[in-house]
Amino acid sequence: MSQENILKVENLVMHFGGIKALNDVTFDIKRGSVSALIGPNGAGKTTVFNCLTGFYKATGGKIVLSAAGKETSIIKVLGEPFQVSDFFSPIAFFGRLKYKMFGGSHLVNRAGLSRTFQNIRLFKEMSVVENLLVAQHMRVNRSLISGILNTKAYQKSEEEALERVFYWLGVVDLVDSANRLAGELSYGQQRRLEIARAMCTNPEIVCLDEPAAGLNPSETEALTKMIRVLRDEHNTTVLLIEHDMGMVMDISDYIVVLDHGEVIAKGGPDDIKNNPKVIAAYLGAEEDEEVTL
Amino acid sequence: MSQSVGINFKKSSIDALVAGFLALILFGPIVGVLLDGYGFSAEFGRVAWMVAIVVVGRFVMSCFFQTEKGVAMAFRYANNDEGATVLSPNHKSKMVWIIPLVILVGLLVPFVASKYVLTVVILGLIYVLLGLGLNIVVGLAGLLDLGFVGFYAIGAYGLALGYENLGLGFWSMLPIAALLAAFAGAILGFPVLRMHGDYLAIVTLGFGEIIRLILTNWASFTHGPNGVSAPLPTLFGLEFKRRSKDGETFHEFFNLPYDSAYKYMFIYLILFAVVWAVLFIKHRLVKMPIGRAWEALREDEVACRSLGLNHVLVKLSAFMLGASTGGLAGVFFATYQGFVNPSSFTFFESALILAIVVLGGMGSTLGVVIAAFCLTVLPEMLREFAEYRVLMFGILMVVMMIWKPRGIVRVTRTGFAARKGAVK
């Protein structure tokens, strides 16, 4: 089972004070699929994303990521509160203490999940190449001594990192802008750079938060092609939030529909298109209700 | 004055009069009233001179900015608050020629300059070290640190107290003080680096004051406000004192007459070497993964976390490396003064070091070096205006922030030549 599903979300609950943003959300994402998370505004899509990527600590439930040959509980690596039983078992205690002190959302990325942001978060005052080099921080030679002495091993590792940078710039069609500042790029280019940056961390699953927002139709089409490249050539699972229904129906193998913090439907694009609950959620009317004007 | 057609003299005259009026308000009470016991005497002449200079200066400036050249210049300055520039991949830095020249001149300084000039240059170099240290924390990692003087104090007191209690000399304390300061940086950093911006600034401000208060009040260990004496460096065991209790002195060994300038020459040469070493390490660090991570953290912490960078450790490394540079500077300060006491480590020092970093340009190494020399050597040159030093300092800051908000030297970024992409 764990090999088939890369991500398992079980009974995910997220409360902000008295507001129940997510209520018992359960879904699985298959390895190598392109899945979409859709729903009307305020349905809790971005909240699910932030829970998955470790930016929010979920109030309850389980999120298990099986990537890089091991299973990672995303809630655990963020650091859980101590339990009474911890004080009797030193191993459990130190495990929890470790995650409490050094845990955080960076561990989620290291476990093989990377993300982009709804409002682009590039390193604006750094060049395009440097943005992608930062993303490879965990893969390069980080030794202070060999870096200062500029040893052969260090140069080799930097050269490999630069090769990967130019590979990904080629994929997102930004080679010509390699030596520009990231903040100077146009909106569409910034979106593509952010995807390249997420891919440079070598993830097994990449979560794209509204990748097509603000793009024109031809750019959206290019993006669709790019997402297919990610899946077909790099065996990356893609999970995306998107409002552009044409694009979602076009590329997704699997769709999860959220409304008011609950999953109201899941399945293939065709099932979703004709699902009465989904139509009701988007158009704002229950089947058995008369819409009076 | 150029008589080109476009100059509107009426506008210039009004500008000049307004500036003169403002100058009268500003300088009138400060310069014009001289306290004399319980009474005071008015000094109209001095005020008149200053106001006249301002009026004429403003008039000339106003006219100049209406000429073609002036308009072009104003345009150039108006555009320079944009960010860094990326160099082209095959950019050849002029530094290849400048650095050997500077090293050569620097090596000649102790043999030609007078003792006084030498001490001023040593002070300048100490501030270069401090500026470089704080530049890592504030300029690269974007962590506002108002208590940097604490690490400076740890280095200085490390040498003085290490000598007094453990008998450690300059050479053994130099690395130990750097480690001590880094350790202090880690202790301070670990709990507080989860904070951002203003909160972090206040905590570090508190840290700097705590160190100073400990040094003042723990009299049994630090001798409180009386201070502690610090040892001089030795050259392979040769001491630079007039006479030595045990061991030989430098001037006796080489059969020279005693001259107190020798010790300053020696301190200068060591400091010069250390500054170059730190400059080199800094130059490498910004190109290394750790330097890139610092800058990325300054730009966007959330994005950094999403890329697998442990933000706490990245910040901590910036804090520790910055602190250790501050510790090194402290050791040199103690040995150069021969004596340390807590009054050298007030908040004003922290503000001065921060000013060096901001004036020089956040993250720019060259800018920090220039600014450090300006802010330490200029006050020495302007000894006559000692009373106005802080005023001058304030005016300089205001003017710089208006004209060059990004510092003297603009940050440049390395360009990378395109290469064939490959994934492995």
From TrEMBL, chain A:
Q: Which GO terms describe its cellular component?
A: plasma membrane
Q: What Pfam families does the record point to?
A: ABC_tran (PF00005), BCA_ABC_TP_C (PF12399)
Which GO biological process entries does UniProt record here?
Answer: D-alanine transmembrane transport; L-alanine transport; L-isoleucine import across plasma membrane; L-valine import across plasma membrane
What UniProt keywords are attached to this protein's entry?
A: Amino-acid transport, ATP-binding, Nucleotide-binding, Transport
GO MF annotations for this entry? ATP binding; ATP hydrolysis activity; L-isoleucine transmembrane transporter activity; L-phenylalanine transmembrane transporter activity; L-valine transmembrane transporter activity
Q: Which residues form the ABC transporter domain?
A: 7-285
What family does this chain come from, according to its entry?
Answer: Belongs to the ABC transporter superfamily.
Q: What protein am I looking at?
A: Amino acid ABC transporter ATP-binding protein
**Species this protein is from:** Marinomonas profundimaris
TrEMBL record, chain B:
Q: Which UniProt keywords apply?
A: Cell membrane, Membrane, Transmembrane, Transmembrane helix
Q: Which residues form a coiled coil?
A: none
Q: Which domain of life is it from?
A: Bacteria
| The UniProt record lists the keyword ATP-binding | no
Please give, as recorded in its UniProt entry, the membrane topology of this protein: Multi-pass membrane protein
**Ranges annotated as spanning the membrane:** 12-35, 47-65, 95-113, 119-138, 143-163, 169-192, 199-219, 261-281, 316-339, 351-378, 385-403
Quote the subcellular location field of this record: Cell inner membrane
- Which InterPro entries does this chain map to? ABC_transp_permease (IPR001851), LivHM_N (IPR021807), LivM-like (IPR043428)
Give all residue intervals belonging to the High-affinity branched-chain amino acid transport system permease LivHM N-terminal domain.
14-108
One GO molecular function term of this record is: branched-chain amino acid transmembrane transporter activity
> GO CC annotation: what is one?
plasma membrane
Major localisation: membrane
Q: Return any one Pfam family short name.
A: BPD_transp_2
Protein name in UniProt: Branched-chain amino acid ABC transporter permease
* Organism listed in the record: Marinomonas profundimaris
